[in-house]
Design brief:
Blueprint (H helix, E strand, L loop, with lengths): L6 H20 L10 H14 L1 H4 L8 H40 L6 E3 L4 E3 L1 H17 L1 H15 L9 H42 L9 H38 L1
Antiparallel strand pairs: 1-2
Helix pairs in contact: 1-2, 1-4, 4-5, 4-7, 4-8, 5-8, 6-8, 7-8
Length: 252
């Protein structure tokens, strides 16, 4: 009994798997430590088998040096695409960080090894809610679909023009900061007005020591108004997912 192996098909699938692994390790919602590394590897392998009909036609097996170069190129492409997606989704985490900063919660800041987030309560809460909404709404399917479509624009071993990703990273960084301010902006304005009101009250009646009430009042306002942001969070996650996929396809 003879068993024949199509080495070119195996090489093409392996190269596609390298791009998948680099993307899955960096890009949300798969980058969280709540998903074991074994599951991430199996997911990357399954996705590489799913895109085999796209990557295998026309693939020509290179020599050993060419294969190593193609392997490194796929690693770079997957990491860049994953970083772009992570950068866009960081807007939600940054919004939570701004709320922690202006609401007085930064004193309880700490590192969450599971979510790989360094922040206080609302930073971690917003990140956790965004990941949960990605899975609940099927947004992760858009992320996977966008990654699969990159093989049409960037064939395996073809590399990528670094000018486009660098420009996209610069644009996405500014977009992330603007999006974070738009998400947390209304609450930040309310907390700023609360500070201004306490300052005016202190000027009018210094004996009241109104600033002693600053932290409790700001914490109370934050806890009252944050649920209003969570009402709009599903729409925000959908918009961020679409922006991330547009960015990835634009680079591709």
């Amino acid at each position: 009994m003879e068993l024949s192996l199509d080495l070119q098909w195996i090489e093409a699938v392996m190269l596609a798997g390298v791009r998948m692994v680099a993307f899955v390790v960096i890009a949300p919602p798969f980058s969280t430590n709540a998903i074991p590394l074994r599951i991430k590897g199996m997911l990357a392998l399954g996705l590489s088998l799913a895109v085999a009909p796209i990557v295998t036609p026309g693939y020509v097996s290179p020599d050993t040096g060419g294969f190593i170069v193609a392997l490194l190129l796929e690693l770079v492409v997957g990491a860049l695409l994953g970083f772009l997606v992570m950068l866009v989704f960081s807007a939600i985490q940054s919004a939570g960080n701004l709320i922690d900063l202006f609401g007085g919660f930064t004193l309880a800041q700490g590192f969450d090894p599971q979510l790989q987030v360094n922040g206080a309560q609302f930073t971690r809460l917003f990140q956790m809610a965004a990941l949960a909404l990605l899975f609940a709404s099927g947004g992760y399917q858009l992320v996977i679909g966008g990654l699969a479509r990159t093989f049409d624009a960037i064939p395996i071993g073809g590399g990528i023009d670094l000018a486009e990703p660098l420009a996209a990273i610069t644009s996405a960084t500014g977009q992330m900061l603007v999006s974070a301010l738009q998400i947390a902006g209304p609450l930040i304005v309310v907390l700023f007005l609360a500070d201004a009101g306490l300052g005016l009250l202190t000027r009018v009646a210094p004996a009241l020591n109104a600033f002693a009430l600053g932290f409790p009042v700001k914490i109370l306002l934050t806890l009252i108004l944050v649920p209003l942001l969570f009402v709009a969070l599903p729409e925000i996650v959908g918009s961020v997912t679409k922006s991330a996929m547009d960015l990835v396809m634009g680079v591709s």
